[in-house]
Specification:
single chain; 194 residues; 2 domains; two-stranded antiparallel sheet
Length: 194
């Protein structure tokens, strides 16, 4: 018999900022690997891989396990994940990880060079990431940068729609809208296999 004890451990990291004697602003950094205000550690990732790849835990059991952990049912923020179907049933706002977007866009760009929108979207996401990196000391990106990014994003989606003949699905949807959009996409793929 193999027994596993699951417990939640929260580690909070803080940074310190100030002005040195020379008048120069100083700011400490987060430890390597800490890249978001809230993120799961390597133990959670390893456990998820073990359950889905080694134990072949199907969606329903995966969703029940997530419920049993009690992490997501009361969650009221924006839940960022990698498109995992077990994650999409929660009633919080959801966003998809851009690292996964980049991987999927790269695959599209490599398989379908006739669809330049994928390469354009990769460039836009990288540009947005660079702007966020440059704006570390600001509370938000400058309005002009945000508007330029949104305009370019909309243009890329419009071009992709024209090339593919399918309407693009918004990146962030309320959970029920997201489920319906995915179902429409699945039906369209079944009706028009590649």
């Amino acid at each position: 018999m193999v027994e596993m004890e699951i417990q939640r451990k929260v580690i909070e990291y803080r940074i310190v900022g100030g002005t040195g004697a020379c008048g120069r602003a100083q700011r400490s950094t987060f430890p390597a690997g800490i890249e978001a205000p809230v993120q799961y550690g390597l133990g959670v990732s390893a456990f998820a891989v073990y359950m889905t790849q080694y134990q072949l835990l199907p969606y329903q059991r995966g969703a029940e396990a997530l419920d049993a952990f009690g992490l997501l049912v009361p969650f009221a923020g924006v839940f960022m994940h990698d498109h995992g179907s077990a994650c999409q049933r929660y009633s919080c706002w959801q966003a998809f990880c851009n690292a996964h977007h980049l991987r999927e866009l790269t695959a599209i760009a490599e398989r379908s060079p006739s669809q330049p929108w994928a390469t354009d979207m990769i460039a836009l996401l990288c540009q947005a990431d660079a702007l966020v990196g440059e704006a570390q000391n600001l509370k938000a990106l400058p309005t002009g940068d945000v508007e330029r990014l949104r305009t370019r994003y909309d243009t890329i989606l419009t071009e992709a729609e024209a090339e593919a003949g399918n309407p693009p699905v918004p990146a962030v949807l309320a959970p029920e809208e997201h489920r319906k959009a995915r179902e429409r996409k699945r039906r369209a793929e079944c009706d028009n296999p590649a």
